[in-house]
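G., the chain you wanted modeled:
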Amino acid sequence: MPLSLERSDPYGSRPLTRIFMARGTRQIQPPPGLKAVPARGEVFVSPRLHELLHAEPGLAQRLPGRETGLIGAEGLARPEELVAYVGMSRGDLPDGTPFSGFGEKWAPTATVEPSTLDILRFTMAGIVLLPLAVFLSVCARLSAAERARRLAALRLLGMSAKQVQRVNAVETVAAAGAGALLGLGEYWVLNRVMSRVGLPEFTWYSSDGALSSSTLLACLVGCPTLAWFVGRASARRAAVNPLAVRRTAIERRPSAWGFFPLVAGSGIVAGYCLAGATGHAPRDTGLSSLLVPSAVVLIGVGLVTTLPTTCRHIARRVARSTHSVALGLAMRRNEAEPGGALRVAAGLVVLVFAASLAQGVLIELAQVTKNTSPVQDYDMRYTQLTTAQRHSLEQLPGVRAHVVIMDSTLAGASETAWSPRVVLATCAQLRNIVSWVGECVDRQPLRLWDAKLAQDAPVAPGKKLLLQTGGGHRDVAISAPERTVRYREFDDALILGSQSILAPPSELPPQARPDSAMLKLISASDPDTVRKVLDGIGHVAPTIDVIPQGLNVTALQQIAVVKTLLALGMVLGAVIGVAAYVVAATDRAVERRPQVTALALLGARPRTLRAVQVTQVVLPLSVGLLLAVVLGKMAESSYLVTGGGTVFWDGTGLPLLVVGTLGVVAVAALGSLPLVGRRIDPELIRRD
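Predicted structure as tokens:
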């Protein structure tokens, strides 16, 4: 029966999977992507690993043999996957497991865990869906104004109310159907192109992103069906009361109910911020995973719905107290038309709020991925290494120290009784793996003591501790020492643990192979050194199971994918927010031309008119952005409080956020200047 052994090692933030195979007398189905089971000395690699082997020859140390071919696409989960099939002899795989072939159905593991997906969904809802909702509402409101007047004209020409609603519904269905077809076509093209190019740390095959039948049905049938009902409902006002939609109709006063979502969302995030500040961070992740996203959505909606009322109130107060003509005209216009402020400022306000929220997610991901310890340790089972391999591993470039850690048993006690671990190392080795060591003496057992670690009742001095050496050797007995050596572990590192016994390496016979012993190598924690050490281990003992403590390569890969998708979402959110502003500003420019022309004919200077236009935009936008920054930081802090990390309050990104906010105000002000032209066209007033 053939044998197989799989090892997964970190390569940067990605896993390198090596599958060692030994042929048997029985013919079996070859691995996916290969035509035959590799023979001894043959190495088949994925295309991306093939490129890395040419760029970094040291990586070949982990793959004993010669590169024979590439793995086909059917044997890979994604184009960037690092996989290798290595042919070995049966004697080289003592820990190999028999297998009967490939091709059976297997449930693949998820690329991103559900908990990590929750972070992604939460962020995407804030940085993409909120700006998208604002953009769609702005576009719907702009098109609805012109369409309502046209439908009102049809109603006045003799059409019935139902006929007017049907006309609008048919037009909406046609637009929705064409939009659905166009969107599906664009997605098909983008999927084909982007699957070849890929995104940083995230690639896929085009077949994996193919449209499913349920998606096609929802887009081609669901969207037009929804558009039919929306079209009928949106035309009801023009059909029932056509005079209410005329251009000169008085705008309805904004309702105070718009403050309800803002107050509700702010109350939730304020409660979490208060809990974090007082040291009572909630640990009920189920309830928090529901409340915090709900609060974010409520605040995002509230920032939009409260903007007209807030700006109308401020404009009225300023207009009453100012003596400036430009400021007075601007405030009176905002008071009379608060909906204009909503259209222009809503997209940019939600964009700044989403940017502040995304910063909190980046902070949490940084806490997970950041290695704050200056050392990295690698654990390997002592019994899987020969004496020559151990000596070679101890001399690897980049390895600063090595120790052997094994369990002990208390003589005369039951097997379940607690007994300290024994660290076989010299004082020099001890100093190389911890940050500080007190007075240490070689060639005698010492009790290790770190004041920062929890200490139970220690073993009484003089008690006999037995070390099971295995391999037919007698057990080694050492006496629990009375003398203590103080030491201090590096921050965010736990290499020795608490209440260990330091013993000379000579206590372990040279040919002993204890089952409970672990060879621990210590190196610096920078990525280049970690990669160099892992390459060296792969060269000395290619099939050894290496455990790099604290380095979860699967989590690092997932977080890299989330960061890529998060960056893509932030770009989409920025594009959507700016698009909402451009659409609203363009419509406002066309709508305000008659009023600007009338003021110019009355003698207002172009400088005054430009000041009026800029003030009309800057005031509501500044109010909204101020609320967005404050509430965005509160939402960010509440998210970090519920995330279980150590950072709740972070002001590092606040200056950048404030500078970006000021930049948004400046761009909006510059975008308002073209509304006032040099030429006066009286035809605009006559047409109005």
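The two ends are 89 Å apart (CA to CA).

Shout if anything looks off.
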